[in-house]
Design goal:
Elements lengths: L2 H15 L3 E6 L6 H12 L3 H14 L1 E7 L1 H13 L4 E3 L1
Antiparallel strand pairs: 1-2, 1-3
Helix pairs in contact: 2-3, 2-4
Protein name: ATP-dependent Clp protease adaptor ClpS
Organism: Lacinutrix neustonica
InterPro entries: ClpS_core (IPR003769), Ribosomal_bL12_C/ClpS-like (IPR014719)
């Protein structure tokens, strides 16, 4: 077995262990664009441009992944989004 194959095996096993979760925001007929944009800036540390792009995707596609990462980091962020009255979940 070559060194290249051993390194590849180590990288593959490490990537399996570090599963990233996602916060997905869903479209609704209640929240305004401005409210969703402001919430994503505060809850997910988005730039105004990122938040606007995510909001447009939510509007036209019905949902958008707004943040990925470790579950312990995403839980409080998702809670802030939900407290703002926006439909979201961690998957």
């Amino acid at each position: 077995m070559s060194t290249k194959e051993k390194v590849l095996e180590q990288v593959e096993s490490a990537s399996k262990e570090m599963k990233n979760n996602e916060i997905v925001v869903y479209n609704d007929d209640i929240n305004t664009f401005d409210h969703v944009i402001e919430t994503l800036i505060k809850a997910c540390d988005h730039t105004p441009e990122q938040a606007e792009q995510c909001t447009i995707l939510v509007h036209y596609k019905g949902k958008c992944t707004v943040k990925t990462g470790a579950l312990k980091d995403l839980k409080p962020r998702c809670s802030r989004i939900l407290e703002a009255g926006i439909n979201a979940e961690i998957i």
